[in-house]
Inverse folding.
């Protein structure tokens, strides 16, 4: 037999190899692109601080659509003092007695801040409405007032960006089942997630109405298809960067100078120290 002979691959094997190669290329391209975008986010951060700009970014969407992963990629290389993430828990009894928008107003940005809302006042148009946490009358009133509230925010000089992440029924179910099977993801599956899975069409109706009634020229909704999480992240972060008119700020590298010399009278402390055991192998 010819020593250079290689058995022919079946069509199925060839398809699998091509698919694997495509995945590897896709992953490599994603890592390179997300790294480039994170450098731009650092540039944005420098400008935000220097210009004293104020930015609000709202992330809404289907459960398991990837809001958490999106926010993580945006914030993992920047300062939490500039990129501040707000994910409010259920309102307290005191907050329930306040004007609905009141607890959100307290978290709006000061100069030099970007506030990212991981869900926002739009809870009233989504989960509150579907789950009966507010009356239909209050939900409708919110939908009427939200554009006016956002107009006041924008008129005050705040840049407001709103993103709605979508995911298909099939992909949402796959992600939920993965959470069930993976011990490190099980905490991400809440009773409310189960309800959102079972009541897909109830949520579809209220989200459609929310997007229609609260889309405006001053604060439009931007829909992010997220069945492919990586593509969704790259597309959304690129859009954020394109939507904020920032400029690159020159970095003035500090002069570290010289470290002081060890004092001649310094005596090393010999008291007992509790050192963490080295378990890394």
């Amino acid at each position: 037999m010819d020593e250079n002979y290689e058995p022919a691959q079946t069509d199925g094997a060839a398809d699998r190899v091509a698919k694997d190669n495509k995945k590897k290329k896709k992953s490599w391209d994603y890592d390179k692109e997300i790294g480039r975008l994170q450098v731009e986010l650092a540039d944005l951060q420098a400008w935000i601080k220097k210009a004293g700009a104020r930015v609000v970014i709202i992330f809404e969407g289907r459960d398991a659509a990837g809001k958490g992963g999106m926010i993580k990629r945006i914030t993992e290389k920047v300062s939490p003092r500039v990129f501040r993430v707000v994910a409010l828990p259920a309102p307290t009894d005191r907050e329930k007695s306040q004007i609905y928008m009141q607890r959100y107003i307290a978290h709006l940005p000061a100069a030099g801040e970007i506030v990212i809302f991981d869900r926002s006042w739009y809870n009233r148009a989504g989960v509150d409405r579907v789950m009966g946490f507010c009356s239909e009358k209050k939900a409708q009133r919110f939908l009427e007032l939200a554009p006016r509230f956002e107009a006041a925010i924008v008129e005050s000089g705040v840049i407001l960006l709103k993103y709605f992440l979508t995911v298909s029924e099939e992909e949402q179910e796959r992600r939920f089942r993965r959470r069930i099977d993976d011990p490190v993801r099980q905490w991400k599956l809440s009773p409310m997630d189960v309800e959102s899975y079972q009541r897909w069409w109830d949520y579809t109706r209220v989200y459609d109405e929310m997007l229609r009634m609260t889309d405006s020229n001053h604060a439009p909704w931007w829909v992010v298809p997220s069945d492919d999480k990586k593509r969704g992240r790259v597309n959304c972060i690129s859009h954020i960067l394109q939507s904020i008119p920032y400029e690159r700020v020159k970095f003035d590298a500090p002069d570290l100078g010289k470290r002081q010399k060890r004092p001649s009278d310094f005596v090393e402390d010999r008291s007992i120290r509790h050192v963490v055991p080295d378990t890394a192998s």
Summary: The two ends are 47 Å apart (CA to CA). The domain at 30-243 is CATH 3.40.50.300 (Rossmann fold). The longest strand covers residues 54-61. The longest helix spans residues 11-51.
